[in-house]
Amino acid sequence: MYRLALIALVALTALVLSSPADAFQCPKLVKQINDTVSNRFDAAASQARVDSEKAAKLHAEGKHAESEKLAKDTLAKLGVK
User: Fold this and answer.
1) In this structure, what DSSP letter does residue 53 have?
2) CA 5 – CA 3 distance, rounded (Å)
3) Using the 8-state DSSP alphabet, how is residue 62 labeled?
4) One digit per residue, pLDDT tens: the chain, 81 residues?
5) CA-based Rg of the chain, rounded to a whole angstrom?
6) Which single residue of 1, 9, 25, 44 has CA 20 to 30 Å from 17?
7) Is 24 helix (H, G, I), strand (E, B) or coil?
């Protein structure tokens, strides 16, 4: 019984701590996009700026998974790993 309670507590703690960590990833990715396109004026950079704003909006709405996916896709299109 003690072991089961300990496992449940560890699992719950891991879940609680991992969710906010994902939320902090979005602003870092958006900043990385903005830094990458700050001195670029081509079509890809223009679209990346639009996608960056969209990702920031999704983050503000609490849709962190969608925001992170959009930001990572945008960085991939820009050739950033």
Assistant:
1) H
2) 5
3) T
4) 878 777 877 777 766 655 554 557 889 999 999 999 999 899 999 999 999 999 999 999 989 899 999 999 999 999 887
5) 17
6) 1
7) coil
The single-letter code of the amino acid at 78 is: L
45 sits in the region (left: phi over 0; alpha: psi -120 to 50; else beta) called alpha
> Positive or negative, the Cα torsion across 56, 57, 61, 66?
negative
Work out whether the CA dihedral 33, 34, 36, 37 comes out positive or negative: positive
Amino acid residing at 71: A
CB of 52 within 8 A of CB of 30? Answer: yes
**For the chain, how far is it from start to end, CA to CA, in angstroms?**
46
User: Angle at CA 50, nearest 5°, toward 18 and 78?
Assistant: 75
